[in-house]
Amino acid sequence: MTNQPLFDTAAVDEMSAATRHLQRTLEGARHEDQRSTLEALEALAAAQAAAGAAEVHLVREARRQHATWHQIAAALGVTRQGAAARFRPRGIS
Question: Which of 15, 44, 46, 86 could form a disulfide with 50 if both were Cys (CB 3.0 to 4.6 A apart)?
Fold first, then answer.
């Protein structure tokens, strides 16, 4: 078995870019400015989508490596049942 990184470069770049964009947008956001608030929400949604995709990938990788739902839940700070319900492929009990 080769020692490969968990993510390809494109996935890491996407998460980094989304995070940088969110940071720049939040730094520029001003109170009482609806446009900057909405831009910040869009940037947050993009960062959450990138993080969510990474989370799913890492959970699948952890399961492939035989991590238990208890271990995954502890890493995520949720209950075992919550982690399994959220990430277990549909149709598998």
Answer: 15
Decide if 2 is inside a domain: no
42 domain residue, yes or no: yes
Identify whether 3 is part of a domain: no
pLDDT in tens, 24-59: 888 887 778 888 889 999 999 999 999 998 899 899
Burial class of residue 38, CB neighbours in 10 A (0-12, 13-18, 19+): exposed
Q: Which residue has the tokens 């075992």?
A: 80
User: pTM to 2 decimals?
Assistant: 0.76
Q: Is the pLDDT of residue 14 over 90?
A: no
Residue-number span of the structural domain to which 53 is assigned: 9-87
Number of structural domains in the chain: 1
- Is there a domain that residue 93 lies in? no
What does the alpha-carbon distance between residue 66 and residue 13 come to, in Å, rounded to a whole number?
27
